[in-house]
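Archive entry. Fields below.
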Amino acid sequence: MNETFKLTLIALAILLVLVSIAAGLIWVERRMLAAWQDRYGPNRVGPFGLLQVLADMIKLFFKEDWIPPFANKIVFVLAPTIVMVTILLSFTIIPFAPGILVADLNIGVLFFLAMSSLGAYSVVLGGWASNNKYSLLGGVRGSAQMISYEVFMGLSLMGVVIMAGSFNMTDIVLAQEKIWFFIPQFLGFIIFFIAGLAETHRLPFDLPEAENELIAGYHTEYSGMKFGMFFVGEYLGITLISALITTLFFGGWLGFGFLPPVVWFLIKMFAFILFFILLRASLPRPRYDQLMTVGWKILLPLSLLNLLVTGAFVLYFNS
Amino acid sequence: MFSIIRSIWLTFLHMFHKRVTIEYPEKKAYLAPRWRGRIILSRDPDGMERCVGCYLCAAACPVDCISLQATEDDEGRRYPEFFRINFSRCIFCGYCEDACPTYAIQLIPDFEMAEYDRQNLVYEKEDLLIMGQGKYHGYNYYKHAGVAVGVKEKGEGEQEDQPVDVRRLMP
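PREDICTED_STRUCTURE:
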């Protein structure tokens, strides 16, 4: 009973922290984008504009929650919840510190890959249910992009799995005590990072929503808190990919001792979140065929090569 | 590939650049003297209204936000009976200023005229008329014009000759 209570408490705490991080990222992103564009960003509401998040939330809650009469109502309502649910479920496997995790699955990495594949449904169904050609185009792009980037996202992680000898996230972190995996698995890290960008459809890979061609892509018709869920889902996605990069390539909670493990984890995670935002500030969006070409013709062979070489090395040195 | 990394790095460096934003209510941007803002009606050096009610500004206005009614005083000097500008329509194009033959209507560098009630944006003559001469000092239309309306007698203006009696002008 006591143990169950403790685990529930940890799960709730993680959920609360994650959702508040995702909401706070709205402010972080706007301030940092502004900093990189020689502006100030929101600095009026509260100290440093921190209460801007609250103001935005209140605004979103009071917006008219409109469902277009031509939309498929059930799917339209369901789509934004899928992205939230799948991403929040993916977080269950991430060890924030020894003992602070929801589920210590022995197939952690696979669980994440499965969940991120399911997340693609949110985009596709949202775009389809809106019954609007721009939304549909966004949804189609989203599905194609996710399917093609999913392939080598999984393959790029296999190098890490080979080196750690386990799918379990905790084991992967513990295997990095000697050397963080981003050094031996540098190629894998780069490929996973690019795939992660495409997976969260963040700039420069935000083709499903491409404002200047598709208005807002798959969430054009969404308003109010349904839009808010897509929005928070996107920030949760950034947090998830950053947390995964931290766990898989940068030693998770491992640090130099004078700070608690959770703090180390958060420092590394936020460094990657900021890098995501920096990418948005600096890079233009590629054309759609370029995105596909890079995915299938360059990154997929590279990740296969990485897998091959890693496997060969591990076999050679272990036998 | 290199250029991508370079542009990321250059964008990062912008963090340490000077901000471009002027934080408006506390700090104010410089407005040039000829900046087109709030419209005023000016007076001539004698303190009389410059406007002669010629309707050219109302005709030039692309959004029809100026309305006025000309009238004359006892000495024949024209002036507007009322002069009304609807600033909720005004687009601050400055055509009225260009059209004005007497430098009466002028746009000044002031833009802080927000109101909660739309009706308060309709400015009457007493709101528009200022005590000074605005941007053009020393200009008095009736000292150039031929008509005598109590400012000067006929033929006594600047750059003006005495009137010629055509019946006595013999070859």
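CURATOR_NOTE: Chain A touches chain B at residues 35-40, 278-279, 281-283 (CB under 8 Å).
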